[in-house]
UniProtKB/TrEMBL annotation:
<keyword id="KW-0732">Signal</keyword>
<feature type="domain" description="Spore germination GerAC-like C-terminal">
    <location>
        <begin position="206"/>
        <end position="370"/>
    </location>
</feature>
<dbReference type="InterPro" id="IPR057336">
    <property type="entry name" value="GerAC_N"/>
</dbReference>
<dbReference type="Pfam" id="PF25198">
    <property type="entry name" value="Spore_GerAC_N"/>
</dbReference>
<keyword id="KW-0309">Germination</keyword>
<dbReference type="InterPro" id="IPR008844">
    <property type="entry name" value="Spore_GerAC-like"/>
</dbReference>
<feature type="domain" description="Spore germination protein N-terminal">
    <location>
        <begin position="22"/>
        <end position="196"/>
    </location>
</feature>
<dbReference type="GO" id="GO:0009847">
    <property type="term" value="P:spore germination"/>
</dbReference>
<dbReference type="InterPro" id="IPR038501">
    <property type="entry name" value="Spore_GerAC_C_sf"/>
</dbReference>
<comment type="similarity">
    <text>Belongs to the GerABKC lipoprotein family.</text>
</comment>
<dbReference type="InterPro" id="IPR046953">
    <property type="entry name" value="Spore_GerAC-like_C"/>
</dbReference>
<keyword id="KW-0472">Membrane</keyword>
<protein>
    <recommendedName>
        <fullName>Ger(X)C family spore germination protein</fullName>
    </recommendedName>
</protein>
<dbReference type="Pfam" id="PF05504">
    <property type="entry name" value="Spore_GerAC"/>
</dbReference>
<keyword id="KW-0564">Palmitate</keyword>
<keyword id="KW-0449">Lipoprotein</keyword>
<dbReference type="GO" id="GO:0016020">
    <property type="term" value="C:membrane"/>
</dbReference>
């Protein structure tokens, strides 16, 4: 009797186990790699959807080449959701969005439409991953997806790889994933998105798009991104270039291998001061005139490095204050630690942010010269 009861319970348990009722075979799916949103006619949203073509995965890329490893489907509807429902009509397959790498928004659309509303469906739906890169494209975003990828199989993958490398190694762009954009746009905060443009017939993800009240107001050039990443404590790796003291035409380069920053807001009456503290570790990369024979020589070089870092941060701050774009989060800091004062200044925070004073305290350490020679390798004094 006990065995019958046990078998009966096992049978009931088997009925509760998940099966393959919702299985999806790969030949039935269209894997979306990238999406571009542009301003369409009569206020519609023009969407270009890049879908991976597995049968040609080993052939050369190119938007219109029948041997390409992707195809681009263009649709134009009033909403993003309508455009998404339209794509399978051209493919004969159900679209799968979990492999999407990039969402690009054309500059014209970004200036006219609230970006948070454009991305609302991607925030809500369960298929798009929250680490998808969100970029603002100079000109027409859909045209970038028609370009031939240089190394990768699809343009979406190529854009993602370029953006990742430039953020991690070149400090010329920022990290702007779907999740991070959602955090920034919450409560009408100012935001930063990655920016893509065309250079020498190809595309380059450099610079950052400044978003205010959900819309694009301008672009922060790539040479200001380094200072921005320092302030945000997101600096990964990069170079500091300084001029030789006795010859301004000669430059030397120091690699920043580690950088950690933090800042604190001090409020005295109506004056707001942000005190930035930063710890830096560097490695000698390219010397042309400096010789580090004494501690005094090293101190002089460190002083030059710190002055250059301060200059880069101040240049970025001046641009942000001119734009009245608090993308570094000073207002959020005041709201968190000084809520009473924030309630009095939040209505005119744009003007208040433009008057904020910044001070810097940088501590730099040189951890390696790369060789045993603390001077130019081919100098007359090198042994």
């Amino acid at each position: 009797m006990k065995k019958l009861i046990q078998f009966g319970l096992l049978g009931v348990l088997l009925l509760t186990l998940p099966g393959c009722w919702n299985k999806r075979e790969l030949p039935e799916l269209g894997l979306v790699m990238a999406v571009a949103l542009d301003q369409g006619k009569k206020g519609q949203i023009e969407m270009t959807t890049q879908v991976f073509r597995p049968s040609a995965s080993g052939s050369e890329g190119g938007g219109g080449d029948p041997k390409s490893s992707f195809i681009n489907v263009k649709t134009s509807k009033d909403t993003v959701f309508q455009n998404i429902r339209e794509v399978p009509l051209h493919l004969g397959r159900r679209t799968q969005w979990s492999h999407m790498r990039v969402i690009m928004i054309g500059e014209s659309l970004a200036r006219k439409t609230d970006i948070g509303k454009l991305l609302d469906l991607f925030f809500r739906d369960h298929e798009p991953r929250h680490n998808v890169s969100v970029l603002i494209a100079k000109g027409h975003a859909g045209e970038y997806l028609a370009k031939k990828p240089i190394v990768e199989q699809t343009t979406g993958q190529q854009l993602m790889r370029i953006k990742q490398y430039l953020f991690q190694k070149n400090t010329s762009t920022i990290k702007s994933t779907l999740l991070e954009v959602a955090k920034q746009l919450k409560d009408d905060n100012d935001a930063l998105l990655g920016y893509v443009n065309e250079e020498n017939g190809s595309f380059a993800a450099s610079g950052a798009a400044l978003i205010k009240k959900g819309k694009l107001i301008g672009v922060l050039p790539s040479d200001h991104i380094k200072g921005l990443l320092m302030l945000l404590n997101n600096y990964q790796n990069g170079l500091v270039v300084i001029s030789c003291p006795n010859n301004k035409k000669e430059n030397e380069a120091i690699e920043i291998v580690s950088l950690h920053s933090r800042w604190k807001v001090n409020m005295v009456d109506d004056k707001i001061t942000v005190r930035v503290k930063m710890e830096v570790e560097g490695a000698l990369g390219e010397l042309r005139c400096t010789e580090l024979k004494t501690m005094k020589d090293e101190a002089k070089l460190i002083d030059q490095i710190e002055k250059e870092l301060t200059k880069e941060m101040m240049t970025t701050i001046q641009v942000l204050q001119d734009r009245k774009a608090d993308v570094i989060g000073v207002g959020n800091h005041i709201y968190r630690y000084h809520p009473k004062q924030w309630s009095k200044m939040k209505n005119n925070w744009d003007e208040r942010f433009a008057q904020v004073t910044f001070t810097f305290h940088i501590k730099t350490k040189l951890i390696t010269s790369g060789t045993s020679l603390p001077e130019p390798v081919l100098s007359e004094n090198a042994q």
